């Protein structure tokens, strides 16, 4: 009978020892994979959010808002950088508007897609606009505007506004600024620039002071020509994430609401002049959840035979 001393050096190990070695290697690999995924999750959670500014510039990623819907107000996304809002030949109740916002829900937190800004950081956004009327037969008031806020209904919001009546700016010869706090309209402000049919709207948010500054300038401008500021107004809001929006509204503030005629409002060249928008919901959170699920699945997986 052979003893262990009779076995050649480098001879094959016993089958039991081979199976034990395989089980150990698979178990080690399983835990290594789990640790790698866990470390990846931590890195994603701790790392800074990637800038995704380019995505918010595409109007195909924005959401149409109608409050309420009216057949005489229609819209069209002409291209990723241009939206058309139309007022048709028929009456529209005062306060009815149509427009677009950068998130798809009533608030950024309640949205499943889109882009918003943190209230903890400064930002400035701008958009080019134009408003044209048919040559005759325009009766009633229309307003266009652009601003920022916490919710779809404008409960906490501020924006720059251009008012018209009967296809003319004669009754409102300058631009204005409007704001709300908890759905209470604040005192309107004048933006001392002569009302004109085209240009740029601006909205700037200062996190430290809570100031929101609205402005108007030339088309494509990097800064406004004239502004109005609601000092500290955001301190009276809810501290929720903020998002931009633009609109066309039937308005009876000067006389009667929109009744007949035709108007064509264009919004183009939305731009982020400072600050960084964040995807809603944040990609980092989704990735973390996916990786966490994979880690758990690998940790629970039994090694093969």
Could you describe the 3D structure shown?
The structure is a single chain. With 305 residues, the protein is an alpha+beta fold. It has 2 domains: 14-48 and 285-300; 53-281, Sandwich (Jelly Rolls), CATH 2.60.120. Helix content is 18%, strand content 36%. The protein is built from 3 helices and 17 strands. It has helices spanning 15-46, 53-56, 283-300; strands at 63-67, 73-79, 82-87, 97-101, 115-116, 123-133, 141-149, 157-165, 174-181, 184-185, 189-194, 198-205, 212-217, 226-230, 243-250, 263-274, 278-279. The strands form 3 sheets. Strands 1, 4, 7, 8, 9, 10, 11 and 15 form an 8-stranded antiparallel β-sheet that branches. The chain has a 7-stranded antiparallel β-sheet with strand order 2-3-16-6-12-13-14, with no helix packed on it. Strands 5-17 form a two-stranded antiparallel ribbon. Strand 7 (141-149) and strand 8 (157-165) form a beta hairpin. Helix 1 (15-46) runs antiparallel to helix 3. The chain is globular and about 50 Å long. The two termini are 33 Å apart. 35% of the residues are buried. The model is unreliable at 1-12, 31-54, 284-292 and 294-305 (pLDDT under 50).
């Amino acid at each position: 009978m052979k003893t262990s001393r009779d076995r050649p050096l480098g001879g094959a190990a016993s089958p039991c020892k081979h199976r034990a070695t395989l089980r150990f290697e698979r178990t080690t690999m399983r835990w290594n994979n789990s640790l790698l995924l866990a470390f990846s999750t931590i890195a994603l959670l701790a790392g800074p959010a990637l800038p995704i500014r380019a995505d918010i510039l595409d109007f195909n990623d924005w959401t149409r808002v109608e409050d309420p819907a009216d057949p005489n107000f229609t819209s069209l996304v002409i291209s990723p950088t241009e939206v058309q809002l139309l007022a048709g030949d028929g009456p529209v109740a005062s306060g009815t508007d149509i427009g677009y916002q950068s998130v798809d829900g009533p608030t950024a937190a309640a949205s499943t897609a889109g882009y918003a800004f943190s209230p903890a950081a400064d930002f400035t956004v701008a958009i080019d606009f134009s408003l044209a009327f048919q040559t005759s037969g325009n009766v009633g008031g229309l307003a266009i505007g652009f601003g920022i806020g916490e919710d779809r209904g404008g409960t906490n919001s501020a924006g720059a506004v251009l008012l018209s009546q009967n296809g003319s700016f004669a009754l409102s010869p300058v631009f204005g600024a409007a704001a709300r706090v908890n759905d209470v309209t604040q005192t309107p402000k004048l933006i001392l620039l002569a009302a004109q049919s085209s240009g740029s709207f601006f909205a700037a948010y200062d996190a430290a002071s809570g100031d929101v500054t609205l402005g108007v300038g030339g088309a494509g401008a990097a800064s406004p020509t004239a502004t109005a500021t609601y000092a500290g107004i955001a301190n009276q809001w809810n501290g929720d994430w903020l998002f931009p929006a633009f609109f066309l509204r039937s308005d009876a503030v000067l006389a009667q609401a929109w009744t007949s005629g035709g108007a064509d409002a264009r919004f183009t060249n939305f731009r982020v002049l400072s600050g960084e928008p964040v995807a809603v919901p944040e990609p980092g959170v989704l990735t973390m959840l996916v990786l966490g699920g994979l880690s758990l699945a690998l940790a629970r997986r039994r090694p093969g035979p």
